[in-house]
Structure formats: C-alpha cells, structure tokens
Design a protein that fits this description.
Largest sheet: 7 strands, mixed
Shape: globular
Radius of gyration: 13 Å
Strand content: over 45%
C-alpha cells in the first residue's frame, strides 16, 4: 500500500508559477514510476506529466511541454511538478499517482496507475 499526499496548490495569476509536491509513504517509492494528472470541473482526468522510477525518462502532455518540469527525490520519497507560465485553462485539481511495474508511453494513461493522492487545487486567474 502506498499513500500519497499532494501540496503546493493555490491561487496564482496568469503567467505565474507553482511547484507541486507529492510525498509518498512506503520504502519502495524509488521503484515506482510516478505521474501527475489533473481534473477540471465537468471534465475527465487527464495526463500532465510522468517520470520513470530512475528519473531518467520524463513525459509531458503537449500543452505542458516547455512550461513544466517533473522531478523526483527518491531519498525524500517525493515527486515534484514545477509549472511556469500558468494559464487559466490550467485550473484544475492536480493529482499524483503511482504506477508500479509500468514504463514508457503507458505512463500517459490513467488506467495503469494504482494509487492516487487526494489532490491539490490549482486556480489560475486571468
């Protein structure tokens, strides 16, 4: 069992930045790929970014490329999402998730993720 706790969300003006954090329990964190997803009201949950368990491979949703960076610190059991140049359409609840035994392009899909955090709200004002 893995427990995930997101933090770092908040209200920011368009063009601003936020750094989300996701702290994981469990001593096998370093063996898991991790992902960030978001869900806006009335919309399906969508992929934002993912990182392999070594940190050597990262994946981004097209609109987030160049504006965000996913990283991880396995010593701290934490994964981060740095988001810059935020837009009102980035407003959503952001979730981190764990994908054991998954790699590659599958990390961009919701289904392979087994454990999810409760989410943190990101609101971007225009």
């Amino acid at each position: 069992q893995v427990q995930l706790v997101e933090s770092g969300g908040g209200l920011v003006q368009a063009g601003g930045s936020l750094r989300l954090s996701c702290a994981a329990s469990g001593n096998t964190f370093s063996r898991y790929a991790m992902g960030w997803f978001r869900q806006a009201p009335g919309k399906e949950r969508e992929f934002v970014a993912a990182i392999s368990w070594t940190g050597s491979n990262t994946y981004y949703e097209e609109s987030m490329k160049g504006r965000s960076t996913i990283s991880r610190d396995n010593a701290k059991n934490t994964v981060y999402l740095q988001m810059n140049s935020l837009k009102p359409e980035d407003t959503a609840v952001y979730y981190c998730a764990v994908a054991p035994d998954v790699s590659g392009e599958l990390l961009q899909r919701v289904r392979p993720y087994r454990y999810w955090g409760q989410g943190t709200q990101v609101t971007v004002s225009s």
